[in-house]
């Protein structure tokens, strides 16, 4: 039997929740004096949850509206509540509402973050919702990158527009929009290269793609999705910083929230940037990507009932 979505999520957040639960252990029954509150706050920061959320939990605990000798589980329930508040505001699936069609989704991110796999998973998700999907192989830097997307397109059963290795990505995007418009495609998802020499080159490449898109449809790209690798922890945050500057990110997808991920960084990203987090990925199969439930994830992080809903 394959591992369930919930079990994969548990895996991806294990490092965060184990750390959090471990650091809070033994606080049950202790008075919540300044020193204990400091310990709780530090434990949350050490779990990658971000300083603002940690401070909010501390404030809630210090309010004194709880029993003075609060039990450990009580502390974790407060953590879950505060994390849920942060995540609730950003957990938003991508809506397909562009008119005229197609809705163009540009997918960006550093190399290896999971862009191409995420595109396949997104295409599968949209197909399941009965949208007509097309892919564009805008990462022309490696023949393997084009081949990888082609293989996915065949497996999922969606059309793809490609060009030669080393070819002009903007030209491929131009052709793709033309074709997608002609056959009434709902969603066009564009892969891009993460492997460019430097920031300037990356900026130029993405700007060129955006210019070409805008000429065909001023509203395109409708979405600029930054794909982040959850195993890189805090590094994911600096990637948001860079890509916001070079490409105008409209939303995030966090991948690799399975195995050795440091899932807490999801909360830190939500708290710091407030960008919508459209979906999370928990593996390499096409059905390993979904929008997420803020309550389920926050309970997993806080180590409550294995995160299950009551
Ligand atoms: N465990 C796990 N692996 C993933 C996930 N998403 C992608 N991968 C793997 O991570 C590796 C890189 O994924 P790609 O989709 O090729 O990443 P990319 O950003 O397109 O990489 P470049 O094209 O080289 O820039 C591959 O081996 C994927 O199978 C995920 O959610 N979980
Ligand atoms: Mg790729």
Automatic annotation (TrEMBL):
Residues of the SRP54-type proteins GTP-binding domain: 102-303
Keyword Lipid metabolism: no
Any one GO MF annotation of this record: GTP binding
Keywords linked to the UniProt accession: Cell membrane, Cytoplasm, GTP-binding, Hydrolase, Membrane, Nucleotide-binding, Receptor
Pfam families membership: SRP54, SRP54_N
Complexes and interactors: Part of the signal recognition particle protein translocation system, which is composed of SRP and FtsY. SRP is a ribonucleoprotein composed of Ffh and a 4.5S RNA molecule.
Protein family according to the UniProt entry: Belongs to the GTP-binding SRP family. FtsY subfamily.
Biological role stated in the UniProt entry: Involved in targeting and insertion of nascent membrane proteins into the cytoplasmic membrane. Acts as a receptor for the complex formed by the signal recognition particle (SRP) and the ribosome-nascent chain (RNC). Interaction with SRP-RNC leads to the transfer of the RNC complex to the Sec translocase for insertion into the membrane, the hydrolysis of GTP by both Ffh and FtsY, and the dissociation of the SRP-FtsY complex into the individual components.
Protein's name in the database: Signal recognition particle receptor FtsY
Species of origin: Sphingomonas endophytica
Gene (UniProt): ftsY
């Amino acid at each position: 039997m394959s591992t369930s979505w919930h079990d994969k999520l548990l895996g991806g957040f294990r490092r965060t929740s184990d750390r959090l639960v471990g650091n809070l252990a033994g606080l049950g029954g202790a008075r919540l004096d300044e020193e204990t509150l400091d310990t709780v706050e530090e434990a949350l920061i050490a779990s990658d949850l971000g300083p603002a959320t940690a401070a909010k939990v501390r404030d809630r605990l210090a309010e004194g509206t709880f029993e003075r000798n609060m039990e450990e589980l009580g502390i974790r329930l407060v953590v879950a509540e505060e994390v849920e508040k942060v995540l609730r505001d950003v957990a938003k699936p991508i809506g397909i509402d562009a008119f005229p069609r197609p809705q163009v989704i540009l997918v960006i991110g550093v190399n290896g973050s999971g862009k191409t796999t995420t595109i396949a998973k997104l295409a599968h998700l949209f197909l399941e919702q009965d949208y007509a999907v097309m892919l564009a192989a805008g990462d022309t830097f490696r023949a393997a990158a084009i081949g990888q997307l082609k293989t996915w397109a065949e497996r999922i059963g969606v059309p793809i527009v490609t060009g030669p290795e080393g070819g002009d990505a903007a030209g491929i995007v131009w052709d793709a929009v033309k074709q997608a418009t002609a056959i009434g495609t709902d969603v066009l998802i564009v892969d891009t290269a993460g492997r460019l020499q430097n920031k300037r080159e990356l900026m130029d490449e993405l700007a060129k793609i955006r210019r070409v898109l805008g000429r065909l449809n001023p509203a395109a790209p409708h979405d600029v999705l930054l794909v982040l690798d959850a195993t890189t922890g805090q590094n994911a945050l600096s990637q948001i910083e860079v890509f916001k500057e070079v490409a105008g990110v409209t939303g995030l997808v966090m991948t690799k929230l399975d195995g050795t991920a440091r899932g807490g960084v999801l909360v830190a990203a939500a708290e710091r940037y407030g960008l919508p987090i459209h979906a999370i990925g928990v593996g390499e199969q096409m059905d390993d990507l979904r929008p997420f439930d803020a309550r389920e994830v926050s309970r997993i992080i806080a180590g409550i009932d294995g995160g299950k809903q009551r």
